[in-house]
Amino acid sequence: MNTPATPLNPLAKDxxxxxxxxxxxxxxxxxxxxxxIENQISGVPVVDPQDRVVGVVSKTDLLQRCLDxxxxxxxxxxxxxLAEGADNWSSFELQELGTVEDFMSADPVTVLPSDxxxxxxxxxxxxxxHRVIVTDEGQHLLGIVTSLDLLLxxxxxxxxxx
Length: 162
Description:
The N and C termini lie far apart (about 40 Å). This protein has about 160 residues and is an alpha/beta fold.
């Protein structure tokens, strides 16, 4: 729904983080973990070689993948390796867990830059997610809006009381 921007009704483009960090489908589990930690973020869009959004992956997805274990041996798990101690832990190879393509959430929730913040918030609540990807009509990555971005729209009541 394209609604004109006003101070009381900003648009997705007004609050999005432009040109967000993204990963490719071939990004390994280890690479993803490093990207999330180094950038202090909890999730990223997954893009194809033409920079079109094809998925989204989060720390929760990564943790679930680690708990599920290696691709070739689903009975072996990250949790079991952790519980058995440091010797087994050192032999647990994160590379065996595959790539982002193996566990990303396909069909991520996307919005257009011209969508109202109200629409963005509605989509996040309905889909029970913490981020939406901002794309153009061709699904090319433009930005990201997180639940924190929405919360920052609310004035600080402590400053208003002073």
